[in-house]
Amino acid sequence: MPEQVCISLDAMGGDHAPEMVVAGAEIALKRLPHLKFLMFGDEARIKPLLAKYPGLEAVTEVRHASQEVTMDDKPSVALRQRRDSSMRLAINAVKEGDAQGVVSAGNTGALMAMAKFVLKTVRGIDRPAIATYMPTQRGETVMLDLGANIECDENNLVQFALMGEVFARILFGIEKPSVGLLNVGIEELKGNESVKKAAAILREIDLPIRFEGFVEGDDLAKGTVDVIVTDGFTGNVALKTAEGTARLLVHFLRETFKSSFWAKVGYLLARRSLQRFRERMDPRRYNGAMLLGLNGIAVKSHGGTDALGFSNAIGVCHDLIANRLNETIKGELAAFEEAISKAPIDEETIALAAGQAD
Amino acid sequence: MPEQVCISLDAMGGDHAPEMVVAGAEIALKRLPHLKFLMFGDEARIKPLLAKYPGLEAVTEVRHASQEVTMDDKPSVALRQRRDSSMRLAINAVKEGDAQGVVSAGNTGALMAMAKFVLKTVRGIDRPAIATYMPTQRGETVMLDLGANIECDENNLVQFALMGEVFARILFGIEKPSVGLLNVGIEELKGNESVKKAAAILREIDLPIRFEGFVEGDDLAKGTVDVIVTDGFTGNVALKTAEGTARLLVHFLRETFKSSFWAKVGYLLARRSLQRFRERMDPRRYNGAMLLGLNGIAVKSHGGTDALGFSNAIGVCHDLIANRLNETIKGELAAFEEAISKAPIDEETIALAAGQAD
Predict the structure, then answer these.
(1) What is the domain range of residue A275?
(2) A interface mutation test: which of B269, B275, B285 has the most A CBs within 10 A?
(3) Which pLDDT score, from 0 to 100, does residue B182 have?
(4) Any CB–CB contact under 8 A between B108 and chain A?
(5) Statement: residue B325 has pLDDT above 60
(6) Given an 8 Å threshold on Cβ–Cβ distance, is A240 in contact with B185?
(7) How many domains in chain A?
(8) Domain shared by A168 and A232, yes or no
(9) Which pLDDT belongs to residue A310?
(10) Nearest-CB residue to A184 (from B147, B230, B249)
């Protein structure tokens, strides 16, 4: 029987909270019976919901929070003025060791700011990153950063590569995930300085990472590599572009099946298969963005998710806890530092290698 | 009867050149009978192809080029060592006034480098940009830059906005296209310095532009605005991510229709409508990336395109010539400079406005 795992939940975060948080916890518990929960939020609203699920109620402790972080709260405001919010208290519980990880479907910026402030970054990581995984032609791919860091230098990108690799290893159960740096395809104009230098470092240093070099925007859907590393600006745009394009095609497809009598009949006949197509693209399957690089596991669920999607975010949080994500990242960092100390590479070497990358 | 328009063609550029170039010109001529062509390339290969189309042959002058630019040629190499290439001579023809615009399906980096070197940028434009248009839920949207400029400052972005607006006006026939700046959605972390400052300039200055502020990656497919402005790194990644995602969904869909007997029957019944779905997404419809900001019209066709796609790139080139793209851009720039001179905004004003944008 696996060890019990305690996850703290921001019960007030998300468009359909607290109902979907409680119902999502119930679904997760059915799948992972060794879970237990700390739920933070409005006691008067949460307790009646819990009463519907005696099994869940038995493994859940509700702790009252007098405040909520709203979707419009700026991170700095949330940090200063929402110290008794469900989000903040749920994060505090991880810091204090009451829970091993936290899941919230609330305001991303506020969650990042609070988690960073409360949990602090892992030694050796300058900045935390947001990572998620997406469906591809070959399976699934992890991408990071998705918006925590607008401008990144080469060291940030190298650290993202290390963290993303560990994340993919745990998530997909692959021993040696391949890693690529997102870049543009026009020769000689290739890449900004940070990207070129990061590639040079990843190539020059003997790390336990399968670095495959540069990848382009379409490699995301192709699944060319298991991990795609980029700055938060590009990653955020790429993720939203992919989501938007997928929705556009589904919209076109829906119009197509309404456009004629035979198309409607065709749809009816193929609808079971089309249902599986829809399931394959279901964003609820890919619900759970990880805040990597913090002293604690923090998972962000989509704000608009339902109970099923939220249960998947809890599942991701569980897997990262059970597989000791942070210990592995720390081990990886130690190996990185050892490799650097053995073969110190100076600015000149990096610049040279980056030049050759052209 | 419209004025005759002469377009120079790089007959050797593209995977299926010169056959698809000649066949593409024939299709374009059928649609636009007032076209005439200069074709640059291997005379011995082009002339026999032309002989198949007497109508086209009558309005086409073939000029021999002893060299070709390959897809692997670096821009700098192409510039120095391919001075007698079909691409270079086709661009020279625009410079010399023999043709009013050029279309090539060859190496993008080489085309950009040569066109910039030969044609030079319009006065007032610091750097040319690559623009294209894409299908959206509301119609079509122009996006630029797609990779000509990896790092952009606020002035580059403002110039892209001006050029993109004129491009959309001509392409879509809209009087006042709306313009948005691509950004990320996480509050307070919003945008890098260039993006914030460009937004401040576009907001503060009284320009004949409908600036709608920031948009995000998913606004591309939604068609929220008519023109999306971004740096070449982000634009290139976004374009390829959208293309890759569209291909992924079509791949999933194809698998779906093969997955069961009833799905196959459904497909057969709906196939006429699905054919229209495919046509709507057909990349050949969106073939023709424009090199904006040069003293001359230069259009890049997809390298892998067929004759139909190439004819669309010729069509785009024709529309830009007929609608005096460059004269309009110059007029827009003059208005911009006048607005600046009337209400000079200094660094401080921009910084202040950019700060408020948070």
Answers:
(1) 123-287+324-358
(2) B269
(3) 95
(4) yes
(5) yes
(6) yes
(7) 2
(8) yes
(9) 95
(10) B147
